[in-house]
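Human: My hope is that you can spare some time for a protein that puzzles me. I am handing you a single protein, as its sequence and its fold in token form. Could you go through the record with me and say what the backbone is doing? Take your time, and here it is.
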Amino acid sequence: MTNLNFSRRAVVAAAAGLAVAPGLGGTAQAAVARRVTILGDSITAGYGLPASQALPAILQGELVRLGASARVVPYGVVGDTTGGALNRVDRAAADADVCVVALGGNDLLQGADPTVVRRNLDAIVRRLKARGVTVVLAGLRVPPLLQGSYAEAFNGAFASVARSQDVLFIPDMLNGVVLNPLLNQRDGVHPNAAGVQVIARRLAPVVARALATA
């Protein structure tokens, strides 16, 4: 009985030692546990694509390739706007180390007031930062053929929030993908698998940097 009790104590002690001792896998486990959420719309939700080819899965793979292991969790709703996302930002913040805010496409399609877009984005970023989440703001720019005062104001909304809130910023997440038939599905709006690859490769280095500072 004494030997059995000693063996049990030894196992418990060894397990406790593994849990706290440096260099025995704890760092790797912590790295895997890092959580990146994407607060977005149909692109984040993977519209028209299997989950394995959608942005969250591809971004996670790109992060691993860069040596920044993390679990990427999607919070994308098809058709969502900055206003809609503001109502669910707290869920995207739960247990997140980093949150990528990737919104604006539906605001643009609806001709939303850029002032309202900026106000919503600002509120989203503030809420995330208040929860201790590192933010990456993925901007969106109006296509060149639609340039004008509205385009300037809309484009400026993202840059303004990034500057005032001092967060990592990607000026145009969809650069080179928008209106490119080779990188979009038949609807001409949603990226295909190749388009998602372009987006993920653009996001990954910035998200990896955010993870390093989170």
In short: The radius of gyration is 21 Å. The chain has two domains: 1-30, 34-213. The longest helix spans residues 193-213. Residues 1-30 form one domain.
